[in-house]
Amino acid sequence: MKINYHSETDSLYIDFSDTPSVESEEVREGVVLDFDKDGNITGVDIQHASKKLDLSFMEMNAVPIGKTRLAS
Asked: From CA 5, how far away is CA 54, in angstroms rounded?
C-alpha cells in the first residue's frame, strides 16, 4: 500500500495494489474509488484532502508484516 499526498492539487491517493484500475466511481463529492477488471478496489483518491482530513496525524495499527517493504 502506498499513500501519496500531492500538495499542488491537495489530493491524497491511497494505492492498495499495483494492479491497473479500469474503472472509477465517485462515491461522495471528491472521493473516488478505483477498481481493477475484477471489481477489486485498487485505490482511493480524496480531493481537497486537507479540508476533509487531519493530515498532520497518521497511525497504523495491526498491520500484517509478511512481505512488508519500506520505501522512501
From this structure: 12
Write out pLDDT tens, residues 8-47: 999 999 999 999 999 999 999 999 999 999 999 999 999 9
pTM of the model: 0.79
Strand partners, 15: 2, 43
Which class for 70: exposed (0-12), middle (13-18), buried (19 or more C-beta within 10 A)? Answer: exposed
Tell me the C-alpha distance between 34 and 45, whole Å.
Answer: 8
- Residue 26's DSSP bridge partners are 32
Residues 6+ away with beta carbon under 8 Å from 37: 22
Identify residue 56 by its one-letter amino acid code.
Answer: S
At 59, the pLDDT band (50, 70, 90 cuts) reads: confident
